[in-house]
Amino acid sequence: MGDFTAAHLGERRTLADGRQVTIRPIQPEDEAAERRFFARLSAETRRLRFMKFVRALNEQLVHTFTRVDYDRYMAFVCEATVGGAQEIVGEARYAAEADGESCEFSIVIADEWHKSGIGGLLMNALMRYAKASGFKTMEGMVLRDNRPMVKFVRALGFEIAPLPQEPTLVRVVRRL
Domain for residue 57, yes or no? Predict the structure, then answer.
């Protein structure tokens, strides 16, 4: 999408409840905030995000999660004031698929921010950016028992398809 920096892509938003948040690309300087964000997630939220139990992010994952190339790999975070400091309260990311036309997304929201509206803000920012970067479709795998996520992506226009070879998952796909 060109030579962009996080400052060019950040936007301040007001949620329906009046809270202020910032949606912006993740940066290498966010490593400590990324660790804190993950540590605040419940065990169930971690399971739903990673499709298995993950106790903590290892250093390699933290490094990978906080580096984007603004093209094939992109991530937006939502920052808000938590306990008097700016903290990450949600993130959405994509990675390009081998075909070059589709990308796979993931999203995770801090438990206390579920149903606040930041999921939609993050996904809309991610989808706009992916489309502007030339991707034609966005897809993901969701645990079938993650009903709130299935409902959420359906509301965003994703189609839901079962995976016969993997009965615990559904594939979600949306044209950009």
Answer: yes
Mean pLDDT over 160-169 rounds to 93
* pLDDT at residue 58, rounded to an integer: 78
pLDDT in tens, 34-91: 999 999 999 888 888 876 666 777 788 888 889 999 889 999 999 999 889 999 999 9
Segments forming the whole domain that contains residue 84: 6-136
Q: Is residue 132 part of a domain?
A: yes
Report the relative pairing of strands 85-96 and 73-82 from DSSP bridges: antiparallel
Query: Which SS3 state, helix, strand or coil, does residue 102 take?
Result: strand
Cα separation of the two ends of the chain? 15
Give CA–CA dist 90/153, Å, rounded.
16
The CATH number of residue 70's host domain is 3.40.630.30
For residue 2, pLDDT over 80 is answered with: no
Asked whether residue 153 is domain-assigned, the answer is no
Supply the DSSP string of 38-50, one letter for each residue: HHHS-HHHHHHHH
Residue type, 41: L
Q: Is residue 48 one of the residues assigned to a domain?
A: yes
* The total number of structural domains that make up the chain: 1
Identify which of 117, 92, 102 has the alpha carbon closest to the alpha carbon of residue 173: 102
Cβ neighbours for 38, distance < 8 A, ≥ 6 positions apart: 46, 56, 57
